[in-house]
Amino acid sequence: MEEGAPLGGLARVVHLLVLSGAWGMQMWVTFASGFILFRGLPRHTFGLVQSKLFPFYFHVSVACAFVNLCVLASQYSWARITFWESSQVFLLLLSLVLAAVNDRWLEPRTSGAMWALYRVEKERGLGQDAPGSRRGPDPYRQLQAQDPKYKALRQTFFRYHGMSTLCNLGCLLANGLCLAGLALGLRSL
What we know:
Layout: H1 9-40, H2 43-75, H3 83-123, H4 139-146, H5 148-184
Helix pairs in contact: 1-2, 1-5, 2-3, 3-5, 4-5
């Protein structure tokens, strides 16, 4: 940021707290909680927990991105914006858009496909096993090979889940780059 247009003290604190809080939450949900829950819970219980966690997570991600964008954008002199300032605004706007796509479009579709999968699995007596607990042939792969409806549901679920994951990683990267830029701009530590 240019010397002539520094962020006010309160704006700097809000910006740093919201950005670092959002990034920390994204790191935890992306790299810790999902793996811990996946390895320790039965398949359908894991899905239930994720279906309750993710809408809240995406709402908070949208709110944090919006607050950061508003705080930062209101502090700039748009007539003399620097490359770094415009890059930071772009990264926060990208984070907002990706979080909103996840929140409003991808999460409901992913959860809907998951619930449809779980109904078919429940009919077949599947879903209460923990990952890695079964020996022998994988009953989910067998069901996929036998039931074209189930196979199509899995493809739909994994397509939406994959897009959601890419959006989440984009938010994580954008916020991480903003934090790195803030850290590089520190005069002392």
